[in-house]
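We modelled the chain as a single entity of 349 amino acids. Its sequence is:
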Amino acid sequence: MASRPLRIAFDLSAARLGQAGVARTALQLADALDDRTDVELLRIGVGSTPAAGSAARLALALQLDLTWATRGARAEARGRGADVLHLPLPRGPLTPGRPATVITVHDLAIVRHPETLSRWNRAYTQRTLRRVLDAADAIVAVSQDTAADLATYAPAVADRIHVIPNGVAPFWFVDVEPPVRTVPYVLAVGTPEPRKNLPRLVQAMRLRRERGAIEELVHVGADGWGGVSLPDESWLRRLGRVPDIELRALYRGAAAVAIPSLHEGSGLPALEAFAAGAPVVAASTGALPETCGDAAVMVDPLYAESIAAGIDEAIKRRAALIAAGRRRAEQATWAMAAERCAVLYRSLT
């Protein structure tokens, strides 16, 4: 077995439903694994992306949950001679089987903040998560915070949990010219959904502007749900989804990047902002303190006043935070994550 590369079936079906969050991390980890000579990566679950809000998109989402994750991915992996199947979501087979299966869990919002999940996601995860964890040969947690939640939620699988933090791609470190904007701005990146806590960020920005602050709020993200909508304000710019090359420039030019989420299992936008050279203000909850360390201003996400004060501090400490953030990002690469995944895969064969 050691004389040939391991054949790893890596599920990329999440990228058919969007390019943010889990899809983004899955694609970047797949690229890093592809760069290795000891891994032969088999990209499975790829296909077309139906239009947002269409019946075809809803049908695809249901099919991926109900048949692909539970049976189809394993069948394809086995048919292609894979040594290991890696599913980068807590969606997977409900019973043990071959090939060996690795499941990645990004967070346990289903336990900590179930009200922030969509009705279908909440119902499906509550019914299947324990069975998926029990059936997996190994479970990757992207942070110590998530690992601790998993061990509390399912003590029987504690010895199968492996912490492998997300990385940040070299792309984000490239120095670029920031966008030409006549007014300074605070940048928020993320899908408009309950866990991102965007309404409180808007309140915080309103407080700051009432006190004379001039920064606008620029939001990047699309396909919102859960009744989250941003108000019509002259100082709020909605850019929707933008190409990474534009997002990198937006990070670079931001007066501050705000991540006031109620809970995150990792915090990829923080790492991207660090690498691009932006001061970050982040919520002191979930895995964000673990991801950010001392390179960001931490705030209480339940209070707009705390978020507003944090933004003020991040802007004042801009130079020091940018330097600390770059150092932090340099310690988190996808190559490191791929190395640790490869070691885990080998242990399962």
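As a brief sanity check on the tokenised model: The first strand starts at residue 6 and ends at 11. The chain is about 40% helix and 15% strand.
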